[in-house]
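Narrative progress, year one. The postdoctoral researcher (J.K.) led the effort to move from monomer predictions toward full complexes, under supervision of the PI. The following entry was the first complex the group processed end to end, covering 1317 residues in total.
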Amino acid sequence: MAECHPVGFRWVMQAKQRGATIIHVDPRFTRTSAVADMHVPIRAGSDIAFLGALISYVIQNERYFKDYVLSYTNAAAIVSEDYQDAEDLDGLFSGWQEGKGQYELGTWSYEGSDAQSRDVHNVPESHAEKAAGFQTAEAKTHATDRTLQHPRCVFQVLKRHFQRYTPEMVEHVCGISQEQFNRMAEFLCRNSGRERTTAFCYAVGWTQHSTGAQFIRSCAILQLLLGNIGRPGGGILALRGHATIQGSTDVPTLYNLLPGYLPMPKAGKDTSLQKYNENYTPRAGWWTEFPKYSISLLKAWYGDAATADNDYCFTHLPRMTGDHSHLTTVVNMADGAVHGYFVMGENTVVGSSNSALQRKALRKLDWLVVRDFSLIETADFWKSSPEHDRGEVRAEEIGTEVFFFPAATHVEKDGSFTQTQRILQWHHTAVEPPGDARSELHFAYHLGKRLKELYADSTDPKDRPMQDLAWDYPTHGPIEEPIAEAVLAEVNGYYTADRKPVGGFTELKSDGSTACGCWIYSGVYANGVNRAANRKRATDPYHYGPDWGFAWPANRRILYNRAAADSDGRPWSERKALIWWDDAKQQWTGHDVPDFPKEKKPDYRASPDSRGIDTISGDDAFLLQPDGKGWLFAPTGLQDGPLPTHYEPVESVIENPLYRQQCNPVRLEYPRADNKMARPYSDPRFPYIITTYRLTEQHTSGAMSRWLSWLAELQPEMFCEISPELAQERRLQNGDWAVVSTARGEIETRVLVTARMRPIKLGRRVFHQIGMPYHWGNRGLVTGDSANELIAFSADPNVSIQESKALTGDIRPGRRDRHTPVSLQVENAPGERLRDLPAAQQRPIGKHHIVAPESKQGDQT
Amino acid sequence: MRTSVTKRLPKPTEWPVVKQLQRGDPHALGETAATDRSRNLAPRTREADKVVASVCPYCAVGCGQLIYVKGDKILDIEGDPNSPISEGCLCPKGSATFQLVTSSQRVQHVLYRSPFATEWEVIPLAQAMEMVAQRVKKTRDENWQPFAENGDEVNRTLAIAHLGGATLDNEENYLLKKLFNSLGILQIENQARI
Amino acid sequence: MANGFFTDTTLCIGCKACEVACKQWNQLPDDGYHFTGMSYDNTMALGSSTWRHVSFIERPAPIGDADTGGLAWLMASDVCKHCARAGCLENCPTGAIIRTEFGSVYVQPDVCNGCGYCVSGCPFGVIDRNHEDGRAWKCTLCYDRQKDGMQPACAKACPTASIQFGEINDLRHRARERVDKLHELGVKEAYLYGEDAASQPGTEGLNAFFLLLDKPEVYNLPPHPEVPTHKGKKSWISAGLAAIGVTALAFASVMLGNSARE
């Protein structure tokens, strides 16, 4: 956190000075470890084993926050008789579908729920909306046991699932000593409860794994057990890495989502608006409001053309037929199925995995549009690359037409960023953009205008969406810059009759009388006031700063803060008071905006006849969940198990010590000649663990830092960090050159030998980890090889995020081979089936619908 | 910088040694040795016509920035002390924002590379916009997919894709998503997946 | 009145915001792009174009009783010390270097002729000549910003308050309290470096002083810095005494010689 979010770390350091304890869990000793009270060095990729052991410690020693767990989690729910755990099936859960490579999710539901009857469980590609935390099943009809003794109640299932996750196991799987583990576990328990809370912060070190979503689930389970969610000083904070990466999932430029986490419709399933709304409107919980949000969105997009009679233009939306994520798109591109590509503010050949495959895909395009500040590697791929160096490709042979548009910076345009705590902040135009540099707002608006003109006279039904598209945005100034606030007003929502802004999402309707571009942002432009631009200094003693920016939803600073009070609505303790029920005023009140219907009494109980918001009981703190509870056991929503389970990374140095199933059975893999993998474990060619990361002084792919002398001088060259022991083993000298290789290829880096990298001891065996920042490419003021040349396409099945934080490789002294084609340097490894149990070995490649044939070895163009 | 030089002999009271002794600075280590430039020194932010509130464009902490502007020039970018998120602080990247936005490394014109060409060429913005619109239309029209193989309605083209960074404004992402989805482009992705 | 810096290295996270904020405000060029292999330090030292410099020390002993595998990574942001008795200032023959109204030591670029006498006068090796224009440069303690009551750019940017700017007496007070607190917390090795004349007679105290966790040498700081002119008075007295002695001796020898001959 100190490394990548130094100013966020300001508050950690202040807390430390007031007596807080900082524990840093990381394979490397970083700038965060330097000021931590405890550094726990962990084998990269083994975090579920570690967190699972913490969960087990809390349960076995009865250190969980009992009242909280009973009130706000699904610990008491009884799980279906048909459910079988990974403990029973050696690493698989019940419902595994041989030959399909995925689970049938029905057996993971609560007993007595109507979940099995809902087709949502049986749709193969259903992970798209699930990933967004969207659940449809599980209302409140299921059986419970509040004594938590029933052998199939969630609490007992959880207990059994993690029983083997012991401190001894942690020592053997993660390389953390039992003593240190116990110290940390004890600290966590002591620092949680009524009077105290513990917060977890994480970043992509947890997500970029083939089990990434389950890493976060493990932490959620632990925090729920300890009563640390929805309370001041608690929570799980995702430290996001870009100015509005939160915003770009809220207002998504993502294939599987519409704004506000509404799912993108699916072919064959969401065939009409009615079906779409039915499929995603649960019987209970806040999402019962779903049709209001979906119809208001369609009104915002298609304006007057959207009417009840034409399903509000619902069929204008394209449909998904599987995984269309970044990695899948790129392999399709490499196979010639994608012809045009827009890349905006992204340097994909440096920042995304398997750079050679990325460049190969770009070479197959008809046209490419890149928008950025300077001429980044992605724009220049046809002119310079390692393939050019090796003489494998020449510009004269690359047919891609490339447009490079200079982009305006944030000081040259109006707009909002949503930062990591969901706060929207507005930035104002300070100066005009130089030359032909323009904002993306300008680009999108004017491109849309031109395309609307091109399609204006068409009679082809396929062009109706473009004709119906509501695209009237006011512009200003000589460059005709669209007025960003007008877009924000549409995002906020308005009454279609008079275009007056709605005050918030509770005013939205499903009858076409309101339009809203992103329901969760509704309220940001209430009364026509741009609340993202609010800049009133925080005067409240709690430092929530309610008048600084706008935190979605409804300006709430802490999500699920109903859980900060007990089931009767009283604060768990005075010290940790946040919101509470005010009996005199008959409403929720406190230091934050309550994340709960304001006048819903704590003792209100929904009845089976309740509908809509009335289905939320007075103690349903997790009001977006259909059952109102925090899920220790996730009956739906995940593709790879209702409980997190330790699987080894797709490339590992060891066999899975816990199960015979080696890897996440539902992982996404792209087995191709241009995406070679090492053996699942113990590949003699790749004996070391590699992990990648950022440095404070550079930013992601370097597009915003390698062209700046003040940053370039601070970290001027690509390097790797290794322990003195590994340096000795491989005769590597500090400051010298080394070649790091994986099955994908090899790169050269400087060597930094440091005691901050420690060999990991797993039982009697010792393993070395190689750390590598990934900021460099072949352009800019400082250049160097890119770590992502080494990383494979393989991903988590829930969110399709690539595994780049744990892989295997080798290192040797010297410089990179500039002559031999990379694809000929390493043969693909056998042992593919060692990743899976026999039942799971028949995984089809077609899971992500890659139909093009495998390209031949050595085919690099 | 403008300096005025007075061509006259100093009065005896203006002689350095007299001043030094009078002002208790016999070795001339302090004020008596200060030049007019030093005496009149002022931070360049004083010259700003306006101070514009902004947000750091790097990570997601969202530190407040103040942009000091004179005319059409940025004089200085530093932290906004009022921000409850950052209280005036910036990390090295945030502190380098001035260089990010004023850098001579920024490209200021549209660059175009035609198929199989070996060099970039500069083309006018309007022409480039029209060319891109034409490319989108052509690719979309030629690769329109009304139905999937199994006959399900899909209304889309898989021949065009988008990958966006997460430093684009919410409003920009909103327009891009709205436009591209309406064109039937499904493969819209961003850094959040990566 | 004197303003200065208190740099509390226990709060430093080595982010180098101070280095960049300084370069930004003062519009300084880079020092070149060299990978040094010395931990995360690639700017190496203070110089004519680097007025804040963060050093990184990997030490095989933890801070206090921290559970960090027997390892500490010490980070410290170095800067011109604006010595109460400044060698550069006293060495400067042109009056280019002055003590400002804020107690800081400031090189006036409109006077400096690049003679370089100041360079040899600094016991810390801070002040440095620019090879292009020949003049001497170093931290100005943001003299221009202070004129408008603004704090120096580095202190403002510092995310963790490792660099604190203020009135020197306040800073001393704060720093001593911090040391006491750290001792209480078991960080017994914490101490102040150069906080006043008593602790560092050779400079008569630093207006930019430090809280350190190891010997000064570990941070590349001299253990007993002394400005060259510090012993000037004593030297003159000794020289005077010596002169008197020699004269007396000569006189005596002449007298004795004379008397011996008698």
